[in-house]
Amino acid sequence: MDAAALDALIAELSDVGDPPADALVDELTAHPQQRRLLERGLREGSEALGELPGAPALTAFLAELEALTAAAPDDLLDTASLPHFTISTPEHVLDLGAAALIHSYAPPRTAAVLVGTGALTGRALERVTETGRWNAAALVPGWLRRGEPGYVATAQVRLVHARVRRSVHRSAGGAGPVPLHQVDLARTWLDFTLVTMRADTALGLDLTDAEQASLYRYWRHLGRLLGIDPRLLAGAVDRAGAELLAERIGAVTGPPGEDSRRLARAGLEVLATALADLTPLPGRVTGPLVDAACRRMLGDRLADALGVPRSTAAAAALRPVVVLTRLRRRLLRRNPVAWDRAVRANVAASRAFALDGGPAGFAR
Question: How many domains does the chain have?
Fold first, then answer.
């Protein structure tokens, strides 16, 4: 799809939510007792529920998820996400947290929705943890199969988006564009793919072209499960295709506002605490380190717009760390046994983190 066709599609989908999920949220609001049916259907399959003549939206939602999952090749479900696990959990605090998460706060309309839903006031830690837990569950190999934790969590995340759309739209009296519309969802998808992989390169955590292609393939399927129109993601088979999508979405996105900066400050503070918990580094070091890594990954222009603090000392200290990280990674790749052992250890760590608590959330 060329830029002109992509622009037309973006314009078409800029006021479209997720009809199956939106219809289900409306149905669950009218019939709260169906929530137990939803939970059972996600974990055991729709056949466990029998005929549901009074729940058309629930039936349609489960049918769509199950059809998408049944059509997915085994190798996609079982191995395509493995490149994600060539990077450790502490390193993902930086690429997913200080890059993808902070980048997701930049669009002013999205930031306003997040502030309005309480993402800043007292819930920054909860939001960051939920996002990380969902991401871990969704990427564990095999966990997007029907009934598995990643599949269930992803369906729940999709419904979180629908509830936010319903709440914000009702608060506005039905006026204005649909919040968290298809283009917003695609933008967030890019945060977890393009932005994260750019960040990896900036930190010395380079992925090969084949590894990137594998992750884009996996995430296109994950995007379908999240209710994103497949036409938006069709061209994002590699970095070039994702760059084009990001460029065209960026053309209709305003600059960061005060809500963006408030969310970024809260998010970076939480990430610094998380890094201190995961590593031997003290909190007085992790704060400047996270800020410096954020600037390195997002670039000074966007970091300035988001109010990310500057630290010349931390930036200087980070440079040799990046060089050593890249060298260590290259050496480890030369030993297939050690490389596989590291990947398996990272999968195990993510599996444990994903199961340590309740369902994760995608909404930042």
Answer: 1
Residue with tokens 């059972």, as numbered in its chain: 40
Neighbours of 71 (CB within 10 A): 10
Q: For 75-125, what is each residue's pLDDT tens digit?
A: 999 999 999 999 998 899 889 989 999 999 999 988 888 887 665 545 667
How many helices (H) and strands (E) the chain has is answered by: 20, 0
Tokens found for residue 3: 């830029």
Looking at the domain assignment, is residue 362 inside a domain?
no
Structural domain of 341 = 3-355
**Residue 178 is which amino acid?**
V
Handedness of CA 81, 87, 88, 93 (dihedral sign): negative
**DSSP single-letter state for residue 142:** T
Cα separations in angstroms, 249 against 154, 188, 254:
24, 11, 10
Given a cut of 70, the residues of the chain with pLDDT beneath it are 117-124, 172-176, 357-364
Six-digit token string for 6: 């992509």
Tell me which amino acid residue 248 is: R
CB 91 within 8 A of CB 326: no
Separation of alpha carbons 209 and 239, rounded Å: 9
Amino acid residing at 236 = A
Pairwise CA distance, residues 264 & 292, whole Å: 14
CA distances to 25, 68, 148, 183, 232 from 64, rounded to whole Å, are: 15, 6, 16, 21, 18
The first and second tokens of residue 244, run together, are 């084009």
Assess if residue 204 is contained within a domain: yes
Q: Give residue 18's Cα distance to chain centre.
A: 17
Structure tokens at 119: 């993402």
